[in-house]
Amino acid sequence: MESAVTVAARSFSAVNASAEPLAPAVHEARPQPGQADVAARLRGMLAAEEAVRVQDPYGYRAFAQVHGAAMDALTRAGRVVEVDLNAATENPLFSGELAWHNGNFHAAPVALALDAMRAALVPAAQLSAARLATLMEPAYTGLLPFLGGAQGRSGAMILEYVAQDALAELRLLSAPVASGTAVISRGTEDHASFATQAARAALRCVEPLEIVLACELVAARRALAQPGSPSEPDRPLDTDLDEARRELSG
């Protein structure tokens, strides 16, 4: 998620997106911590250029708000998990000479935090796919459709298909586990958090999120490299995607 800001900066540069939505005054007016941090980091990566559009699509204009919310959810999930990893969750809990029968074993806080985190990844990935779409569009890049090396070539079009497939998987993985439960042991154990399912789903989110961001990164690099460069024939982009994913996970 941290590297997504760097990827977005490439796209901002490739389409000459306005940095006005990143201005400190904007984020001081709505002091969400993740939003302000993302805006500041992205602002520091962009060169001062004159905007070519009054308002850009949401993939650019609302990047700090959406990605910042995802970063806030990730931070909160990390804190919740850290607390539980260092907590006393046994039942009964022995304190001094007393045994306290309790429900500290219930992993509802972890399940809810991981549910929120996975849900927050989807809008962030959706905006990445939206920026990818603008990189295919001459109206934003000033280049040929799909960043083709010549008129009629498919260029980087396949990246949209790959990104949307990964995004669909990410949406499936965002389904909340906290809405389910189980009643067992003759009704004594009458609720379940399914936090382990939330954790497994969170781990499975890494690959599709990486793929979406890698698609954007490959397209942004291609857009930035094209002006004045020799035309490139259509070719498979799997090596480019593998390289981009290694960079994102490095």
Q: Notable features of this structure?
A:
Fumarase C, Chain A, domain 2, lyase
Structure commentary:
With 250 residues, the chain is mainly α. It has one domain: Up-down Bundle (Fumarase C, Chain A, domain 2), CATH 1.20.200.10. 59% of the residues lie in helices and 2% in strands. It contains eleven helices and two strands; from the N terminus they run αααααββαααααα. A two-stranded antiparallel sheet has the order 1-2. The mean pLDDT is 95. GO terms for molecular function: ammonia-lyase activity. This is Histidine ammonia-lyase.
Topology, element by element:
Layout: H1 3-15, H2 24-28, H3 33-45, H4 58-61, H5 63-85, E1 93-95, E2 98-100, H6 108-135, H7 138-141, H8 158-173, H9 195-204, H10 206-225, H11 238-249
Antiparallel strand pairs: 1-2
Helix pairs in contact: 1-3, 1-6, 1-10, 3-5, 5-6, 6-8, 6-9, 6-10, 8-10, 10-11
Radius of gyration: 22 Å
CATH topology: Fumarase C, Chain A, domain 2
Strand proportion: under 5%
Q: What does the largest sheet look like?
A: 2 strands, antiparallel
- Annotated CATH architecture: Up-down Bundle
- Give the overall shape, derived from the CA principal axes: elongated
Number of helices: 11
Secondary-structure element string: HHHHHEEHHHHHH
Q: Number of DSSP strands?
A: 2
CATH class reads Mainly Alpha
Low-confidence stretches: none
- What structural class do the secondary elements suggest? mainly alpha
CATH homologous group name: Fumarase/aspartase (Central domain)
- Helix content range of the residues, please? 55-70%
> How far from one another are the termini?
12 Å
**Oligomer category:** single chain
